[in-house]
Amino acid sequence: MESMTFVLFGATGDLAKRKIFPALYNLFSDDKLPPVYSVVGIGRKEFTDVEFKTFIEQSLQTFSRRKPEDNSKLESFLRTFRYCRLDVTEKEGYQSLLKKIQEREQEFGIPENRMFYLSVAPEFFDVIALNIKESGLGATKGWKRLIIEKPFGHDLKSAQDLNNKLSQAFEENEIYRIDHYLGKPMVQNLEALGFANPVLRTLWNNQHIANVQITASETVGVEERASYYDHAGAIRDMVQNHMLQMLMMTAMHLPKQITAQDIRHEKRKVMESLRPLQKADVGNHVVRGQYGPGKINDYTVIGYREEPGVDVSSMTDTFVAARLWIDDPSWEGVPFYIRTGKRMREKSTRIVIEFKNTVKDLYIAQNESPVPNLLIIQVNPHEGVSLQLNRKNPLKSGHIEPVTVDFTSNTKDVPEAYELLLFDAVRGDSTFFAHWKEVELSWKWVQPVLEAFEENLLPLHQYPAGSDGPEASRQLLEEDGFQWWLDK
Ligand code: NAD
Fold first, then answer.
1. Is CB count within 10 Å lower at the N or C end of the chain?
2. Domain 4-149 belongs to what topology?
3. Across the chain, what does the average pLDDT equal?
4. pLDDT at 101
5. pLDDT range class, residue 488, cuts 50, 70, 90
6. Atom of ligand 1 nearest to the CA of 86
7. Residue bearing the CA closest to ligand 1, atom 44
8. Is there an atom of ligand 1 within 6 Å of 393 CB?
9. What is the ipTM metric for this complex?
């Protein structure tokens, strides 16, 4: 791994505190950072280097999966950090930042490899990229990389505008767009599961698969994010990025080689084959909902419109379910259902593959009905893979009943998404970052849905907090003779 400087914009913010510093510390503990590196944190606050290091230490004590075991280790980790107060909108400040970076590069003999992480509000993404270019920070003799947080645009046009601006300062292969779902170990595992297992590979097509169900449900409500969420809704917050990324990872074909380039090429082909929705037809394939009051784990919770910061007549979607079709010979006739919502009954991200039940009539004479085989990929909060099979239960007079074969291994101490992603970015591996084409094609698919929502062309179903979402979501699958699996 090459020595480098890590320049963190937004170093005093929530994401830095909760995810980025803990990820860096865990990588450091596992010897997964270059032997020599320097970190410069940037924020608006007046911080001395000492105050900044105290802030980082507190973040590790509160949020890291591993707590610093001893002071000397913590000190050697913190030794690499410096703070720079800078208003990112003011050009002049970038010169003193450049000077600070160069001094440390010289002091430690670090080549001009610079990784810029934009952990700031999206309105600053283009300004910072431009200032990096104009100040000379980006004119390195080594490599430069830009890590950028979500959201990438608010709709198709704003995403294209942002990308045009970023590409004036960085090449596509230098831009690492974070979709933290791609950092989740089980999502990364989809590749190995589907490609490294010939048995599953053989079954991964419309001859054997009846439908695919991708769910990301949360029990939390809008929390303190109303000012952002009320303008975004589940469609922008979850569907355009995380849900479609999981769909790509599930549906992609075997790449020529397991390389970033080939895998991203296959993902892009999935998006290119995704059947577009016409605005007028959105209501036939998409269900939108908004949570009302209800109960979660015996606690009474308020409805979305009563949440602080939310408009009392808000039409924002806190739930979206959709049926998607991939126009590709191997997925012809296989619906992909996605579903995501807040204030749902359970916190769970999972992908369920339902296999065709070709033997359901075989046992009619015995008055038995084998259930379909299911492959369940549990992404969050627990990681695991299980397979639902049928067996005869000797304790119940040999009746056929489903049994679950669980492949879950011990997942204690599994690295977090941000750890895996930062490690990849440091090594220059962009496999699990979103390519611009994936982002753009996702916005293209979502755009008519956004417009149909804005024009209220489909109902906004209320659902009680603590439920599995609106009844219309169940009906969406029932129309095709299916059901959401694992809903109790
Ligand atoms: P935050 O508001 O907590 O922090 C923002 C940071 O930007 C602070 O360090 C602040 O000092 C700095 N900043 C703001 N204006 C500045 C200016 N003019 N000049 C210099 N610095 C300035 O935000 P956050 O929650 O840490 O989010 C950062 C980014 O990460 C956003 O794009 C957000 O959408 C994304 N994100 C956050 C989370 C999360 O869990 N917090 C999750 C996913 C994505």
1. C
2. Rossmann fold (3.40.50)
3. 95
4. 96
5. low
6. 20
7. 150
8. no
9. 0.98
Residue 180 annotated to the active site? no
**Residue of 8, 12, 15, 40 best suited for mutating to test ligand 1, as the one with most atoms within 8 Å of CB:** 15
Per 3-state DSSP, the chain is made up of helix, strand and coil in percentages (nearest 5) of 40, 20, 35
- Within 10 angstroms of residue 132's Cβ, the number of other Cβ atoms is 25
Q: Which atom of ligand 1 is nearest to the CA of 228?
A: 34
Domain residue ranges in the chain: 4-149, 185-417+433-479
Between β-strands 209-217 and 348-355, what pairing exists: parallel, antiparallel or unpaired?
antiparallel
Within 48-204, residue ranges assigned H as helices are 49-63, 71-78, 93-108, 125-135, 156-166, 185-195, 198-203
Give which of 237, 248, 270 is closest to 188, Cα–Cα: 248
Nearest CA-CA partner of 328 in 250, 252, 255, 261? 252
Q: Quote the ligand 1 centre to 13 CA distance (angstroms).
A: 5
Q: Which one of 91, 120, 154, 237 would you pick to mutate in the ligand 1 pocket, going by the greatest count of ligand atoms within 8 A of its CB?
A: 120
Rg of the chain (C-alpha set): 24
| CB burial of residue 228 (10 Å; 0-12, 13-18, 19+) | middle
Which residue's CA is minimally distant from atom 19 of ligand 1? 87
**Ligand 1 atom nearest to CA at 122:** 32
Tokens of 376: 């369940």
Does the beta carbon of 149 sit less than 6 angstroms from any atom of ligand 1? yes
Beta carbon of 227 within 6 Å of any ligand 1 atom: no
Q: Give the residue-averaged pLDDT of 358-378.
A: 90
Ligand 1: nearest atom to the Cα of 19: 40
- 119 in contact with ligand 1, CB cutoff 6 A: yes
Least confident of 69-73, 78-82, 196-200, 237-241: 69-73
Minimal-distance CA residue to ligand 1 atom 33: 121
Question: What is the pLDDT, as a whole number, of residue 67?
Answer: 87
Same fold, 4-149 and 185-417+433-479: no
Arithmetic mean of pLDDT, 27-54: 96
**What pLDDT, in 10s, does the model give residues 120-179?**
999 999 999 999 999 999 999 999 999 999 999 999 999 999 999 999 999 999 999 999
185-417+433-479, what's its fold?
A: Dihydrodipicolinate Reductase; domain 2 (3.30.360)
- Residue 426 near residue 34 (C-beta atoms within 8 A): yes
Catalytic residue, chosen from 154, 208, 242, 285, is 242
Kindly report, residue by residue over 254-313, the tens digit of the pLDDT.
Answer: 999 999 999 999 999 999 999 999 999 999 999 999 999 999 988 999 999 999 999 999
